[in-house]
Amino acid sequence: MQSGLDPVELDDQRVLQDVGIYRYHHPLEDAAAYKERLKALEAQMGDIIKIGRGVLAADMFTFSGSLAKGRKMTADLSKLMLRAYNAEADNCVRSLRSGNIVTAKKRLESAVTAIQRLGAMMEMRVNPDYHALRLQELELTADYQMKVQEERERAREEREQLREQRQAEQELAAERARLDKERAHYESALVTLRDKGDDTAADELAGRLAEIDAAIEANDYRIANIRAGYVYVISNIGALGPDMVKIGMTRRLEPLDRVRELGDASVPFPYDVHALYFSEDAVTLENELHKTFADRKVNLVNERREFFFATPAEVQAVLLEKAGGLLQFVEKPEALQYFQSRTRWPQWVNPPNETGIRGDRE
């Protein structure tokens, strides 16, 4: 049906790159709202088809000198053209991928042009009102797909946050139980030493008890204050290339456990830790860092992703400004497994290096 017309670009990735970030055509609250809107739209299109106004044509066309035959021929051909147009529209809806509506709209516009050209003798054309509804259907379907994808991603992240939260709570509860047990043991030993009159050993043990009490107080604070935790700055030059960091936070008792989980089988190399900073309000500190580097986000579609085009030193400067002194900071990544591996990679591999996304083999 597109013969003699301008070709339609069918490479979805190329079109998506040209279009940029997806913008909703009809912003609605959730995927269910889009389903309802599509259902109502389907009813509108059905009403137009029922009254025979999907395709418009001249009503004074004659065939073999007969106006009746001409109208019969026009009606039959109109049904055929409408069927062809709807088939193309349905195919456009089914082939929507990743919210790419540009190609689908071009294909449907091409179908309208082809029908108008083929039916010129009978002034045949797709009803503009009907075509507008089908274009709206494409927009709503694309919006619906993106909203579903967005909701799935949000649900996945919420499950991950909940799992992280539960893990932190379990670890803190287990640590409190361990400290209580240790405290009870030292209290019993302290009573025994006092009874024996060994005040020197008892005083040393009392000092240890004070340390345990301080640890219990700190642990209880972590349990009660859900905003307390560690802000971390990590990188993975082997997986992400240079000058890219992940800025996140964790409430885990041992924050390195969280870093090790992030460097599981989903990436080829473990993450390098540049900074771990405990904050009584780690949530706010993390948000402030994200805002500072907002214009350097790697993923501009899903803003909940925590990767940024920044060096560890740049993040350190902001941390020093917002949080004060850092007990420990590592500027250069160790990346031991990566550097040991790249020397034995095949010659045709072009690995990332410290000065660019991809560099020449040494």
Automatic annotation (TrEMBL):
It comes from the Bacteria. InterPro entries: Phage_T5_Orf172_DNA-bd, SNIPE. Signal peptide: none annotated. Pfam families: MUG113, SNIPE. Keywords: Coiled coil. Residues 239-322 form the Bacteriophage T5 Orf172 DNA-binding domain. Residues 141-196 form a coiled coil. This is DUF4041 domain-containing protein. It comes from Angustibacter luteus.
